[in-house]
Amino acid sequence: MLATTFDFIVIDGRLASMCLSNKNNFQLLAETEMAKYIKHCFLLPALKKSDLVLTSKAAICQQLINIKTRKLEMDFIFERAGNLAYVFNTISPAFTSSFTFSEMIVDQSRST
Asked: pTM of the full predicted structure?
């Protein structure tokens, strides 16, 4: 489903509110994340342009925001609906492919 202009306005409003209230030092987090998209901020001083290799691969890591508490969710969220299991906020590809994560999912599935 495509996001509408209204969706962007709502999301921008929530993020602006979180920045203004600065709960859990949200302003610093936002500044740190935004700096990653400014060329001179993400290159290491010793790293030269010739060290980089052009690639078509890109990654965007999502992170959930709890709109009730206005905080970032810092852990996995496990929910069930009938015989379906949902895992949200899986921001680490390495961890989500591990045996430890698989065991956690199986344990959660059995306990709910």
From this structure: 0.45
Q: Tokens for 112? A: 């709910």
Ramachandran region, residue 87 (left: φ > 0; alpha: ψ -120 to 50; beta: rest): beta
Q: What is the pLDDT of residues 44-74, one digit of tens each?
A: 667 777 877 887 876 666 778 888 888 888 8
Count of beta carbons in the 10 Å neighbourhood of residue 21: 11
Strand-pair category, 84-88 with 71-72: unpaired
Give me the DSSP letters along the chain.
Answer: -PPPHHHHHHHHHHHHHHHHHTGGGHHHHHHHHHHTTSHHHHS-TT--GGG----S--------EETTTTEE--S-EEEEETTEEEEE----HHHHTSHHHHHHHHHHHHH-
